[in-house]
Design a protein that fits this description.
This protein is an alpha/beta fold. The chain has two domains: 198 residues, Alpha-Beta Complex (2-enoyl-CoA Hydratase, Chain A, domain 1); 47 residues, Lyase 2-enoyl-coa Hydratase, Chain  A, domain 2 (Orthogonal Bundle), CATH 1.10.12. Helices cover 45% and strands 16% of the residues. It contains ten helices and ten strands. Helix 1 runs parallel beside helix 2, helix 4 crosses helix 5 and helix 8 runs antiparallel to helix 9. The structure holds ligand T3D. The site of ligand T3D has 23 residues, from helix 2 and strand 6. InterPro entries: ClpP/crotonase-like_dom_sf, Enoyl-CoA_hydra/iso, Enoyl-CoA_hydra_C, PaaB1. One of its GO terms (biological process) is phenylacetate catabolic process. This is 2-(1,2-epoxy-1,2-dihydrophenyl)acetyl-CoA isomerase PaaG. Keywords: Isomerase. Its EC number is 5.3.3.18.
Length: 262
């Protein structure tokens, strides 16, 4: 059977491609398992200095594979809390906790958990023809995979409520205007722009970038005092890295820095 997640290395960048195109890369257990394994391997491999997540075919990801959720006559309801606990929540936590930048190239429609997994990534680029759909309400569910956390923080309460309660399709361009994603780019430019961005990130002070992720994530739950303390602790750690030493030296010598990632 074919891999449901394709992985390939390009220098310091690990490219992960969701690969169930006939089902619009919707999630089944196998895809969850393979994606989790790939992200764990990336976490353990310091030579991976950025991750690029994208989808095969015309979609990015249509969320949960609903063909696995049809209930026959007399069958009881599935425990969706269990699948969130076992599969979706750990995925979102893995993406956020990975101390390397994760770029998401949304190549087509991103619906349901597919949209929110994209939002859990650090920098989201989308093809102009792509769209974001909080499809949950249309089938009687609640936005998951962090949707109710990310949406109001990214676009504010008014837009979060509209998106989550209406389940309408938000085109990439508007998503960028609203601050839901970083940038919309012409379809034919997406792959190259996303790879250029990921390659750039992979050449940067990797440990500092990991700490930046940590600080920004913590700010959602911290007051100013706690956040200032955290910045102090992280800066102490950053100040001891080889890349900081190189950054200062390169600046003083008026030359581009060569960061090794440690
Ligand atoms: O269950 C749990 O564990 C809890 C977790 C839930 C997380 C969730 O993500 S719930 C939300 C699930 N996702 C959706 O509700 C989205 C369903 N899909 C759509 O609304 C539409 O397919 C799209 C808007 C994404 C794209 O529309 P369109 O017109 O471009 O394509 P299409 O014709 O609808 O789909 C093409 C094929 O993919 C089609 O199959 P066919 O007819 O060619 O054999 C369609 O059935 C299939 N497909 C699309 N999405 C899913 C899917 N098959 C299974 N599951 C899907 N989510």
């Amino acid at each position: 059977t074919e891999a449901t997640v394709l992985g390939r290395r390009e220098g310091g960048v690990l490219v992960l491609t969701l690969n169930r195109p006939a089902r619009l890369n919707s999630f089944n257990e196998a895809m969850h398992t393979e994606l989790a394994a790939a992200l764990d391997a990336a976490a353990a491999d310091r030579s991976v200095r950025a991750v690029l997540l994208t989808g095969a075919g015309r979609a990015f990801c249509a969320g949960q594979d609903l063909s696995e959720r049809q209930m026959g006559e007399g069958a009881g309801p599935p425990d969706l809390g269990d699948t969130l606990e076992r599969l979706y929540n750990p995925l979102v936590r893995r993406l956020r906790a990975l101390d390397r930048p994760v770029v998401c190239a949304v190549n087509g429609v991103a619906a349901g958990a597919g949209a929110n997994v994209a939002l859990a990534c650090d920098i989201v680029l989308a093809a102009r023809s792509a769209s974001f759909i909080q499809a949950f309400c249309k089938i009687g569910l609640v936005p998951d995979s962090g949707g109710t956390f990310f949406l109001p923080r990214l676009v504010g309460d008014v837009r979060a409520r509209g998106l989550a309660l209406l389940g309408e399709s938000l085109p990439a361009e508007k998503a960028a205007e609203w601050g839901l994603i970083w940038k919309a780019v012409d379809d034919e430019r997406l792959e190259e722009e996303a790879m250029t961005l990921a390659t750039h990130l992979a050449s940067q002070p990797t440990r500092a970038l990991g700490m930046i992720k940590r600080a920004l994530d913590a700010s959602a739950g911290n007051g100013l005092d706690a956040q200032l303390d955290l910045e102090r602790d992280l800066q102490r750690e950053a100040g001891r890295t080889e890349d900081y030493r190189e950054g200062v030296r390169a600046f003083m010598e008026k030359r581009p820095a060569r960061f090794g990632g440690s």
